[in-house]
Amino acid sequence: RRPQPPPRPPVAPSHKFADNYYCTRDGRRESQPPVVVAAAQRTLPAGAQAGSSDPKVTTAEKKPVTPGPPLRKWEISKDEPYL
């Protein structure tokens, strides 16, 4: 068998510290639970009206949005109408 030369790993930033312990380098210790930055839903103060304060302005009711193209009307086939 041939003797192998000793390994020479490249010098990394972690090798330059005297107090270089794994527990201080572990990133999992630095992670924390997520922080709520903004509330998901805005709330109005009690007694306030949404939208304009002018009583003359009325808004029309909107239908709920359906994703995709409108559905075609289903028709019963002519050869087997009673399925």
Automatic annotation (TrEMBL):
Checking InterPro entries in the record gives: NDUA7
Q: Give a GO cellular-component term.
A: mitochondrial inner membrane
Q: Name one Pfam family in it.
A: CI-B14_5a
Q: Where is the composition biased (Basic and acidic residues)?
A: 72-83
The main location class comes to: mitochondrion
Q: Where in the cell is it found?
A: Mitochondrion inner membrane
- Supply the alphabetized keyword list: Acetylation, Electron transport, Membrane, Mitochondrion, Mitochondrion inner membrane, Respiratory chain, Transport
**Ranges where the record places region Disordered:** 42-83
Q: Membrane topology type, per the record?
A: Peripheral membrane protein
Organism domain of life: Eukaryota
- Biological-process GO terms, alphabetical: mitochondrial electron transport, NADH to ubiquinone
Report quaternary structure and partners. Complex I is composed of 45 different subunits.
Family label: Belongs to the complex I NDUFA7 subunit family.
Q: What does this protein do?
A: Accessory subunit of the mitochondrial membrane respiratory chain NADH dehydrogenase (Complex I), that is believed not to be involved in catalysis. Complex I functions in the transfer of electrons from NADH to the respiratory chain. The immediate electron acceptor for the enzyme is believed to be ubiquinone.
Name assigned to this protein: NADH dehydrogenase [ubiquinone] 1 alpha subcomplex subunit 7
Source organism per entry reads Pachycephala philippinensis (yellow-belllied whistler)
